[in-house]
Design a protein that fits this description.
This protein is α+β, with helices and mostly antiparallel strands. 31% of the residues lie in helices and 37% in strands. Strand 3 and strand 4 form a beta hairpin. Pfam families: Bact_hydrolase.
Length: 166
Amino acid sequence: MKTAPEILKEECCPLFNAEKWDEKTLVWDEKPFIKASVPAIFHIPFRKMLGKKITKLMQLAEYQDSLEKDKTDTLLLFNDPHPFRSDMYLSVKGKVPKANNVHLSGEFITKVFDGPYRAIPIFIKEMDHQLQIQQKKAKKYYVHYAYCPKCAEERGYNYMILFAET
């Protein structure tokens, strides 16, 4: 039987399996997501607004039973189209009423990294180099953080998956 702290940890961020996502090629054909945006200062989202937006996305999806049963299959992708805005995409099973429903299509190559948020430009350069070897180029990058800041600190890892749309 699980203790209360173990249940809370599971409910917050499931254990991350890097092998499931590292160096994979995914082809999505109108994969459904719900989208929200938050203001940012030079690619750093406002933390309080970020939490509220994520909570709202999760509530909308949960209310409609649109999240995967296996939480490790749920993605929350971040993309910064501008230094002062961050877009979030929560993967869902289908259309969610009262949400900004969008779809992502194309080829996405993944790579798992472990490090601080500030290292993302370094990780992107490494990924660009790996793509160049494959004679590919990223059109856009998305990032999925495996753990929230609290869980990352507790577990000692700050895993993130870079999704390069090629």
